[in-house]
Amino acid sequence: MQIKNNNLKYINMKYSTLLAFLFILSGVTAQERIKVDGVAVVIGDNIVLDSDLGKFKKELQQRLEGKALEITDCGILEEIMLQKLIAHHAVIDSVEISEGEINEEVDRNIAYFTQQLGSMDKVVSMYGFNDEEDLRKELYGIQREQILIRKESASITESIDVTPDEVRTYFKNLEVDNNLPEFSAEIELAQIVKVLKPSEEEIERVLAKLNEIKEDVEEGFSFRLKAIINSDDPAVSSNGPGAGGKYTITRQSGFIKEFKEVAFSLDEGQISEPFESGFGYHIIIVDKIKGQERDVSHILIQPQISNEERVAAEDELNKLRERIINGEITFEDAAKEFSDDKETRMNRGLLLNPQTNDTKFDLTRMDPQLYNRVSNIKTGEITAAFYEEVRGEDKMFKIIKVNEKVDAHTAHFSQDYEKIQQLALEKKKEEVVEKWAKDKLEDTYIKINKDYVKCDFQKNWNKF
């Protein structure tokens, strides 16, 4: 969805994503950056650097895909200042966030970057970090602030709603201003999933192997050598973190919950029993405890799925597809009865767009692999079964049905009412946040660099 006028208020809705990308572009810590960079603004305990302004502007320009950026540097700075103000008061208001929430966001960003660039090594190299752990530490701080901003903003606007009359008025104002939204082509999809599970015999084989390795290490064999020979962790043969199975971790490190729980339950020199995670089965040894840090080594063995099991799952889905096409069963009933995906099977197999929380996907912003699967499929058609695997998650076969395709178009009030309603709600929330910000300026320490005091800000940031 795009608005004809590239007003920052509409760009704001993507701010948290932009900010994450903004700071990722520098592979040094905030303290190191301050030494070589000028401070533009201080808001409470938060700072905005001169370079942050330039990077945010560059990110906005890239997202506008060649269109003119109709906002000044001062306007961009004011938007960043607003976010920092919200983050500052989130801390004052004791907004609660969990380590799990932060790590989930970090993992999501890491997965996105890796998918876009092809490998973790490329991500680390491109963004100038030393290794994955260095990248995760930086992302941890970024995502912590983003969650604070999101929760504080939600608290400020939690009681805000819009009436049908307000939606209608909002739409008419857009019409008068010749500023109706242009909605991109969209698609609605449903899926049926068959998860591939290793046999009990294969799981027993893996556990027996890990127990054998554990006994060998306890008798004096090298854990590192055992990891190099046996581990399925791709980092085991690298020169960075994970080499020989070894990592340095803290409770804030972006490792999966199961891994950290076991690692921090062991004494120095102790080896764990085999345990399961989304990646497979592990054993861990604690090499050294250094205050809040631990040097640990692990061996990962992933149960294998036999070729016969893969073929059987693929055939099962393709036969189910034929039954649906022949009218023997509806896709919705088949999803409910046969799909292994808990999130979609009770909802007619409908895929939910994680960015918008509805069932429509913007074709211009879809996952590239998913787009390639469905872009040439007509409404009502079903793909053949295909294999999908995400590291740390299940291996599976899927069939996907295209429920609906909507061409790109200018907003129509009745056809796009829900989208118009959401835009009207966002605008109303922005107005509430603006009023909140003006009130908070009175009791917040703010210091603006002399290079920016002449900016014609909408709010009274220059009170000091």
Automatic annotation (TrEMBL):
<dbReference type="InterPro" id="IPR000297">
    <property type="entry name" value="PPIase_PpiC"/>
</dbReference>
<keyword id="KW-0413">Isomerase</keyword>
<dbReference type="InterPro" id="IPR046357">
    <property type="entry name" value="PPIase_dom_sf"/>
</dbReference>
<keyword id="KW-0697">Rotamase</keyword>
<dbReference type="InterPro" id="IPR050280">
    <property type="entry name" value="OMP_Chaperone_SurA"/>
</dbReference>
<keyword id="KW-0732">Signal</keyword>
<dbReference type="InterPro" id="IPR027304">
    <property type="entry name" value="Trigger_fact/SurA_dom_sf"/>
</dbReference>
<feature type="domain" description="PpiC">
    <location>
        <begin position="291"/>
        <end position="404"/>
    </location>
</feature>
<feature type="domain" description="PpiC">
    <location>
        <begin position="184"/>
        <end position="288"/>
    </location>
</feature>
<protein>
    <submittedName>
        <fullName>Periplasmic chaperone for outer membrane proteins SurA</fullName>
    </submittedName>
</protein>
<dbReference type="GO" id="GO:0003755">
    <property type="term" value="F:peptidyl-prolyl cis-trans isomerase activity"/>
</dbReference>
<dbReference type="Pfam" id="PF00639">
    <property type="entry name" value="Rotamase"/>
</dbReference>
